[in-house]
User: What shape does this take?
Amino acid sequence: MAAWSRQAVLALYRALLRQGRGLRYTDRDFYLAFIRREFRKNQGLQRLEDKERQLEKGQVFLQSKLGGLV
Assistant: This one.
């Protein structure tokens, strides 16, 4: 599992936003709203296991090149 830290979460958030700049086949505004909504939704997680799971999900999403949309 990914080691959760505030810095890791912020780095993932910034990387996802940067990745959104190069989108070609989807609406950038929709993508950015989706990313912000997901991070806000998970902002209140308390358990470390839940935080790490969501961080790992985000990293997989980033590494998968947004499901081939880039």
